[in-house]
Amino acid sequence: MSPTPTRKSKGAFAMRSLSLAASMAGSLSVLLLMALVCISCGTGASVAFSLATATASTPSLPPPTSCNTCWHPALKTSWQWQLTGKVDQSYPVVMYDIDLFDNDASVLTSLHKAGRMVICYLDAGTWENWRPDARQFPDSVKGQPVSGWPGESWLDIRKRSIFEPIMTARIQLCQSKGFDGVEFDNVDGYTNQTGFPLTSNDQLAYNIWLANQAHALHLSVALKNDLDQISDLLPYFDWALDEQCFQYQECKKLVPFITAKKAVMEVEYRLKTAEFCPQANEMNFNAMKKHLNLGPYRVACR
């Protein structure tokens, strides 16, 4: 991520969701009308076909890679998330989430000596032109620029044979530096204007691959946003990290993590703590207020 504001196109995503819902409703109306016509023609078999084509089927999913040694944060886990500037190590929290490339092993050594678990942030869904491995991404996988994020473009996650080796190397770097887990960012490209016809199934396959790769290297793994696929992705991820679910009134989608005894880390940028902390605590979320630049500032709800 760049040192500028955060969550990508959230408002635009909501508008696209409404548009998609309207489009689906129109398509279903047409299919139901066709079905009624078929019934009048005595061809009931075509009714089943029409209804079956109304929704896309979910592909068969691979099994989760087990990781009994991976860190599984307790439901109540204090944490700090700092992705810009020199890491302020003074917070007495259980977990620090910091940038993979901007911090060397000495930072992790220091945090570990203080008893902290340390998570590496890495971008898995967009290309960032300032990263040391940026030249390894060919132009063919680079899509639309990410609005509000200079030097960043969406990736065509369907062309995984091209950049899976790059992501694997990033995950391995995370492990070799001594991180305890990984936070993959921008793993909901299918809900954004990427420049590619990405589908929910494309995203599902990619996110599962990422989680399994992390677990294969004994790294705890967080699901970042992508709320609409939680029902399928829950078995693959150890905890969740979400931005602005209270602002956008979508926190109920994260409840399956709590039900499964998996921690939810949540951040708000614009709301006042009094506007979300009471509900966050009631839902057993580990919520806090951060500034948009994701520097050291934090105000935890509990």
What does this structure look like?
- It is built from 8 helices and 12 strands.
- By secondary structure, it is of the alpha/beta class.
- The protein has a single domain, classed as Alpha-Beta Barrel (TIM Barrel), CATH 3.20.20.70.
- The strands form 2 sheets. Strands 1-2-3-7-8-9-10-11-12 form a 9-stranded mixed sheet. The chain has a 3-stranded antiparallel sheet with strand order 4-6-5, with no helix packed on it.
- Strand 9, helix 7 and strand 10 form a beta-alpha-beta unit.
- Helix 1 packs antiparallel against helix 2 and helix 4 packs parallel to helix 5.
Explain the layout of strands and helices.
Elements: H1 10-40, H2 45-52, E1 79-82, E2 95-99, H3 105-113, E3 117-123, E4 126-128, E5 142-145, E6 152-155, H4 160-177, E7 181-185, H5 200-216, E8 220-224, H6 230-233, E9 239-243, H7 255-259, E10 264-268, H8 273-282, E11 286-289, E12 299-300
Parallel strand pairs: 1-2, 2-3, 3-7, 7-8, 8-9, 9-10, 10-11
Antiparallel strand pairs: 4-6, 5-6, 11-12
Helix pairs in contact: 1-2, 4-5
